[in-house]
Write a structure and sequence with these properties.
about 65% helix, 3 domains, Four Helix Bundle (Hemerythrin (Met), subunit A), elongated, mainly alpha
């Protein structure tokens, strides 16, 4: 992108705040009113970062003075959405200082104007398209971050199957990295909820080849028990890690199942027919956003047992 890495990460955080505000704006009333505060924070942080990028401004100027500070540096262009941001600022003051809730129509208008604000002004100030500002910068480890970057390129070329496979692997690598750094000296994980049953199905155990109905029913029972235990293990670990399980359920529905072989390599299994019907660039972007959100959730409380040794 040609931007300083420090600026890029802060711009990515602006986008995170914006997307959080958009999500809040669809919540039921009165919870959706919080979107006005988050939206305003995103815009104000963008303006502060713009001053830093263009090397202008004073320490914490009043909100509406940013246009006067920045426009001379952008001449003959100007920052867009000044009057709509004035309305947003008034709504923020009314809500925060007077407890006046904005109407549903106001919130819809603020969401639209904030979207236009970032889409119009990000290329003007930073020379990049707002949609290209990647929150992937906040994902660790590096292997996961690189996979997500490759997935974004796949989405741009329309290869959604490849993108979703890489996103699925990126998520698993992120979880494994986080869990591995929490293991004790005996390599025990606090997020261990039972042994991996990947190779304990009827195929690997040689069951289900008999001709009697009892043998077939027993094989079916084994596979169902294995599936139930694996589902519960995944759900418990997800919740224990502080990850939104409802979003995780959608993520798992969109991404392919994975198998990790003894050599440590991940292999993407075929998509289910139901998932094939759901494949889209929008779904893939949701999956990337979920991995980023999960990375931020893990970063809220991160530690390494090596630090305690």
């Amino acid at each position: 992108m040609g931007l300083d890495h420090h600026i890029l990460k802060r711009l990515a955080f602006v986008r995170y705040l914006y997307e959080t505000a958009v999500s809040q704006s669809y919540a039921p009333a009165p919870l959706k009113c919080a979107s006005v505060l988050t939206m305003h924070d995103a815009v104000e942080l963008f303006l502060q970062l713009s001053c830093e990028q263009l090397n202008v401004g004073a320490k914490q100027p009043p909100f509406m003075e940013y246009w006067d500070l920045l426009n001379p540096q952008l001449n003959p262009n100007e920052l867009a959405q000044k009057e709509s941001m004035r309305r947003l600022n008034r709504a923020r003051v009314a809500l925060k200082h007077h407890g006046t809730f904005p109407s549903d129509l106001d919130i819809e208008a603020f969401r639209a104007s904030a979207t236009s604000f970032f889409q119009d002004n990000t290329p003007l100030v930073f020379g990049v398209v707002f949609e290209d500002v990647s929150l992937v910068e906040y994902v660790n480890p590096e292997a996961s971050r690189l996979l997500l970057t490759e997935a974004q390129a796949d989405i741009a070329t329309g290869d959604i199957h490849s993108a979703l496979g890489k996103i699925a692997i990126a998520y698993e690598e992120m979880i494994r990295d986080y869990e591995d750094r929490k293991r004790d000296r005996h390599r025990r994980s606090p997020f261990y909820f039972g042994r991996d049953l990947a190779f304990h199905g009827t195929v690997f155990m040689g069951l289900g080849h008999g001709t009697s109905s009892n043998e077939r029913r027993f094989a079916e029972f084994v596979d169902r028990v294995k599936e139930s235990i694996e589902t519960m293990q995944g759900a418990i670990k997800t919740i224990a890690l502080g990850i939104d399980y409802r979003k995780y359920s959608k993520f798992k529905r969109l991404t392919p199942a994975l198998v990790r072989t003894m050599d440590g390599q991940w292999h993407v299994q075929r998509f289910a027919s139901e998932a094939d019907n759901l494949l889209s660039a929008e779904g893939a972007r949701f999956c990337i956003a979920f991995v980023v959100e999960s990375a931020l959730a893990l970063a809220e409380f991160d530690y390494s047992t090596l630090d305690d040794a």
